[in-house]
Design a protein that fits this description.
Blueprint (H helix, E strand, L loop, with lengths): L8 H18 L6 H9 L13 H18 L7 H16 L23
């Protein structure tokens, strides 16, 4: 019996929906509309060919994006642990071909030099 590990349409739809939510609801809290338009014109928001990904890839990408959304919700109390989670999940997305050219400095994460000095 052959087992197919392809992602379902629903899984792809969920990831696509999360990516749209991230673009439309999270990033505008940090970037101007003009900058968002420049990012869009530079094709930063294009998803890789999701149908070519297997189910494990889609699940990993979905969890990573959900984590980043949670970390970046306005009003979140970020910490050094949050910064570590940010980098780990950014790496997951990038390893699957998703462009994520943002770093923690853009989102006002504390670093080791500033932590505790607010």
């Amino acid at each position: 019996m052959k087992v197919i590990n392809g992602a379902t349409d629903k899984q792809i739809e969920e990831l696509t929906s999360l990516w749209t939510y991230f673009q439309e609801n999270i990033l505008p809290a940090y970037f101007s509309q003009a900058y968002m338009e420049k990012l869009d014109q530079a094709d930063i928001f294009l998803l890789p060919e999701l149908e070519a990904k297997d189910q494990g890839d889609i699940i990993s990408m979905t969890i990573a994006l959900q984590t980043l959304i949670h970390l970046l919700l306005p009003g979140q109390n970020v910490s050094l642990q949050s910064e570590k989670l940010f980098h780990e999940n950014k790496q997951i997305l990038e390893s699957h071909g998703l462009s994520f050219p943002f770093d923690t400095a853009v989102f006002d994460f504390p670093n080791e030099n500033s932590y505790g000095h607010h």
